[in-house]
């Protein structure tokens, strides 16, 4: 039997079935659990959630006079979707369970690699459900977003960089993981609350779900699309939006990113040719993250651009991105993202292995080659913020015949 009670009456030993309000309204990524931890109880009481639903069969009861008793059901009626949070009035920040301890790139790398594989399997399973016409469940998405957000908060470069190494046949799934991670990182750079960062991540995870409703022969075509095929491909935002909206569980900002991540600031995007502030904050964020991951990934019809070169090219696309959002994105990912081949003033060649927060031009690098001797040198790491050496330019690995750049930065030393 389920009972709806004021949150102030919550006690240890109660089984929490759900909380009223959207996911943004409470500090937990899960909603069904036994209240055992006093810290969880304190976070719940201080969260601002007005009412909770408890299952008195699975946990502690309250006097009948204190609650509204309903017949036993699987879950209480779903609340209406939360409105899109405006940039000027962000939603309240939820109570944090515990601060996330920052990690170095090296420390987070192995953990991020395992998380990436797990996330890919979960996203593939969810998207296959969508392809079969079944509803994607929010409760299946939230743990994935929470894991990705945790990795980004520990070190944003590790997961985002590894996700760029996706294979052509798992592009759609890993693209969703990568955009989720970048949305969280960009949200943090923009000063959004952790709850908003999670919701931005959820929007990134599901932004391309409409591609699962596009015929495979068009989605995976290795060559150029015909005009009719391109029209079908351009329908994926609307297809995804309708599928998510029909589920009735996803908040409006998530639906909006799915529908409008291909809009452009100058009004030349699709499907609705929105301009400037007509495009929501989350969709402007999604546009940048979606494009960056697309151009830095190998696709059936083109090879990936290098990370720093992609940033430079995107900066020249007038009218495509919101300038302030793009600037924040560059700060979040770095002028020289992890994996960028750079030439140092000392004449050495190095690959970027981590960022120095607040010091965009002095990343941490792995030195491996001398242009003076034209020979490999002992591989070692250098923090350019702590030395007199500096980056004088980025280089194209193909020009130098370096085929092992990804191995250099993605493998622990």
From TrEMBL:
Annotated region described as Disordered, given as residue ranges: 73-103
InterPro entries from the UniProt entry: DUF3391, HD/PDEase_dom, HD_GYP_dom
Molecular function GO terms recorded: phosphoric diester hydrolase activity
Bias (Pro residues): 74-93
Domain HD-GYP: 150-345
Matching Pfam families: DUF3391, HD_5
Chain segments annotated as coiled-coil in the UniProt record: none
CDD domains per record: HDc
Protein name as annotated: HD-GYP domain-containing protein
Originating organism: Inhella gelatinilytica
